[in-house]
Amino acid sequence: MTDSYCLWCHRSLKYESTLKNLFHIDDVLCEKCRQSMEYKPKKIKVHGIEVQGLYIYEGLFRDMLIQYKELYDEALFPVFLWKVKQELERKYRGYTIVPVPSSERKNQERGFFTVERMFEVLDLPILDLLYKTDDREQKKMNRRERESIYSHLELKDVKSIPDKILLVDDIMTTGETITAAYRKLKGNSKCTKVLICGYNKAFSGNSVPSFVYKGGIVGYNICKALFIHGKAERFYKKC
Ligand SMILES: [Zn+2]
Q1: Ligand 1: distance of its center to the CA of 77 in Å?
Q2: Distance 84 CA to ligand 1 centre (A)
């Protein structure tokens, strides 16, 4: 086994050398941290689009994503997809990854592209095909502005668009952004699949959350509350 350390708790990974994981690929996290992440793969329908989600945005996964994304801890980039790398590469062989763009100003502050870096773990080509025409962060937009995300996304002028696209994002809070990005790509590629690393707990049940309705979201404050506290039920039951 390796002498390296868990990227989250910094515990030495050499003590992880059990017979079971000798036959598995090495991990960048210790078994305790890995098991504490809410890995719950789920196919979610949002606005008629099928989205493959991997983790519930809760607990340790949420802490890691905040540390990575908001505190600019780039070293955490492999923790999210490392363990499912081989499985995802098999499932999406032949696809080109297209990340949902984030704010250019935030990218410059961070010094790295959060979504792109996270998905670089997979041995699949990445094409930066979409860009934002309005650089404000979504959490700073009001309801009406959030509902028009579609008009703030554009396709880059590239020579050719791949036939098979895997549209990816780090988190799905309401489904608005991923739906807008999907609709921009639709008609330009033969096949588009959607993969999201973390999804709002409100999507973990069998029914569609009531904040997802025909064309938009119920309100900015609800989305903000969902994102910050992850207390989905409390809010969407009120709507
Ligand atoms: Zn650990």
Answers
A1: 15
A2: 17
Separation of CA 5 and ligand 1 centre (Å): 8
Residues in the chain: 239
CA of 64 to the centre of ligand 1 (A): 12
Q: Are residues 127 and 184 in the same domain?
A: yes
The CATH number that applies at residue 75 is 3.40.50
Instruction: Give the dihedral sign, CA 120/124/125/130.
Output: negative
131 shares its domain with 158: yes
**pTM as predicted:** 0.81
Phi, psi of 153 (to 5 degrees): -115, 140
Measure 94 CA to ligand 1 centroid, in angstroms.
33
Please write the tens of the pLDDT for every residue from 87-120: 999 999 999 999 999 888 888 899 999 999 999 9
